[in-house]
Amino acid sequence: MRLCSTLDRGLSVSFAEAVRRGIPPDGGLFIPSSIPVCSGEFLRGIGGLSFQEIAFEAARLLLDGEIPDADLRNIIAEAITFDAPLRRLDESTAVLELFHGPTLAFKDFGARFMARVMSHVRRDGDAGYTVLVATSGDTGSAVASAFHGIPGVSVVLLYPSGRVSQIQESQLTTFEGNVTALEIAGTFDDCQRLVKSAFADARLASRRKLTSANSINIARLLPQTFYYFNAFARLGEQDRGIVFSVPSGNLGNLTAGLIAWKMGLPVVRFVAALNANDVVGRYFASGVYVPGNAVTTLSNAMDVGDPGNLPRVRALFDDDIAAMRREVFTASVTDDETRSAIAESYRKFGYVLDPHGAVGYHALGRYRALAGGSFAGIVLETAHPAKFIDVYDNEVRESITIPERLQVLPGGKKNSVKLPAGFKELKAFLMDS
Ligand SMILES: *Cc1c(COP(=O)(O)O)cnc(C)c1O
């Protein structure tokens, strides 16, 4: 597999190189130089394949031999240990549940695949990498859980002391071995600033071989194509057009869907379901991109003011805004609409959506009202409702089963190192440990 930069189509690196580097030297983002198209035979026979088999075929096509088949099978077997089932709500709408991983959100797919790939592409004799992440909660726990016990990679998480929920803190601090949690006396922005300073410190970055695990890394993006193919397989209606509604923040999930579509997955349209953070909607309407500051909403994982993957979306369409509009419909959904979507889905189908999936559900309804047609609408349900228990009224709340892995064990040992929010202290810690 060859990758270029969104800023330089002439650049050409291998997949291993792109994973190791994270971002190209020109400050753009890695994208595939060309996207391979799957065979008609694969699509016709896909209903007979398991999710893991589909994942293997899609990965093999994309990677084009760069990881030997046997290794790739192992990576997938170890990363994709849970299903992405499709639940029918009615004749025309289904929900693709992406929350069956260890931390109950779709980020488990990308983080777990990336962890194993990173261990695989490590050069012989390498001392190993340190993944450095600032987290306000969810990304950190997905990354910690995914990299825990992976040889050749250690993880250092920075989280703001006293500013994450008790459940999140216990998800971040109960790992041992290759995962270290740093409890920073500051805000999430302080944590992000510290991480940026660490990457900018040449001596530190080379000593620890620092790398990032955010959704900018191409290894987190590729495995997200797998479940789009799986949705098509499980729908089992090959002739019916599909519209995917994708709750979107940083646009990683949407980018993966567009890659799957370019690989030949028959998709009529994507709905980029946005909350009040609507910079992408405004860009689609005007053709002019103006980043903004994020505002807080119920679907907080989508509170993004400057979506990191937008350059990839634009590159996939050669920056042709008319072509983007043909394939992607954007809809911005308010918190009130999110709440009524939760209520409607519960009343009509007895199905509890989390706030992110509810944005997707409402946005799909808006698209259907405008476009009509007999397509199958598939809403990506990106997190388990139990992670957002405060959002629901009593009746809905009582119908939610809290998965065992979310239940906090009282007295669970907290494993974290307290540091002030200063770069000097962080650097000293990283140089010495
Ligand atoms: C990260 C996240 C999103 C947004 O996904 P992007 O790929 O950043 O667009 C949506 N829902 C949940 C639950 C998330 O954690």
Question: What's the quick description here?
Answer:
With 433 residues, the protein is of the alpha/beta class.
CATH-defined fold name of the domain at 84-103 and 221-402? Rossmann fold
CATH A-level architecture of the domain at 84-103 and 221-402: 3-Layer(aba) Sandwich
Q: What's the Cα radius of gyration?
A: 21 Å
Q: How much of the residues is beta strand, in percent?
A: 15-25%
Approximate shape: globular
Task: Tell me what the structure shows.
The chain has 433 residues and is an alpha/beta fold. The protein has a domain at 84-103 and 221-402: Rossmann fold, CATH 3.40.50.1100. The chain is 42% helix and 17% strand. It is built from 19 helices and 14 strands. The chain has helices at residues 15-21, 40-45, 51-63, 69-79, 107-121, 138-147, 166-173, 188-200, 202-208, 218-221, 226-235, 252-262, 279-286, 310-316, 321-327, 335-349, 355-371, 394-398, 423-432, and strands at residues 2-5, 8-14, 30-32, 86-88, 93-97, 129-134, 153-160, 179-185, 210-211, 242-247, 269-274, 328-332, 376-381, 416-420. It has a 6-stranded mixed β-sheet, with helices on both faces. A 5-stranded parallel β-sheet has the order 9-6-7-8-14, sandwiched between helices. α1 (15-21) crosses α5 (107-121), α4 packs antiparallel against α5 and α16 (335-349) packs across α17. The longest helix has 17 residues, at 355-371. The protein is globular. The model has no long low-confidence stretch (mean pLDDT 92). It binds pyridoxal-5'-phosphate. Pyridoxal-5'-phosphate binds next to α12.
